[in-house]
Amino acid sequence: AGGGEIVLACRGLRRDFGGFTAVKDVDLDxxxxxxxxxxxxxxxxxxxxxNLLTKFxxxxxxxxxxxGADITRTSPSRVARMGLVRSFQISxxxxxxxxxxxxxxxxxxxxxxxxxxxxxxxxxEQLDGRAMELLREVGLDDARDLQAAxxxxxxxxxxxxxxxxxxxxxxxxxxxxxxxxxxEDVGTVAAIIRSVARTRAVLMVEHNLKVVADxxxxxxxxxxxxxxxxxxxxxxxxxxxxxxxxxxx
Length: 249
Ligand code: ADP
Prior knowledge:
six-stranded mixed β-sheet, four-stranded antiparallel β-sheet
């Protein structure tokens, strides 16, 4: 796994805020089938890179391509429709709807079927097949009729992931997907992310280096806006500069 085609790439990515350069000369390749970690200390520029990739921020310099198409000047909504989706973009779940209803609603969004949809019960039933597929993919099929509010914290985050998958992303950007989770949920979510990436690509910001070591095929380390090292975890974690700058050894 992790050796597929490059689906998301940036070259010479740079972002200045006034006189301050938050991201500088960043080259990044994310491949189909891989879980790619973006790591680095606070202030390294990880969030800025995510905002640049999803087009929430315009780069000062550099190019971004998504499945071969130049998206450097493309709007955030168009980029999302093209298949680059950041989890929180649509991950607001509705606590008083059931798990299944949450995924149904998410499935309607990309096609903009809402008006037509509410008039037609059969359309609603048709969505259930796809919704159940997504729930099975993330292991929430047994919880379909529970209210979202009644899920555990970990399973709420998994439901958010399912509603994100409803947009049919080719590249999924996850910002600390395991944040605040206990050991058991971390393992469950790691397994889901691994399975999700098999037919897509995942780029994730992650602070837990054990998760990175166990889950991620490739790691890019940022420091003060620049790439310090990139490669598989074994290579990156033994890199002298990474050890000094990031891992404190
Ligand atoms: P990380 O996500 O790795 O913690 P960020 O991308 O949030 O890092 O921030 C990188 C640097 O850019 C930080 O020094 C931060 O203060 C700065 N920065 C981020 N956004 C802005 C902004 N809108 N205006 C000015 N400085 C910013």
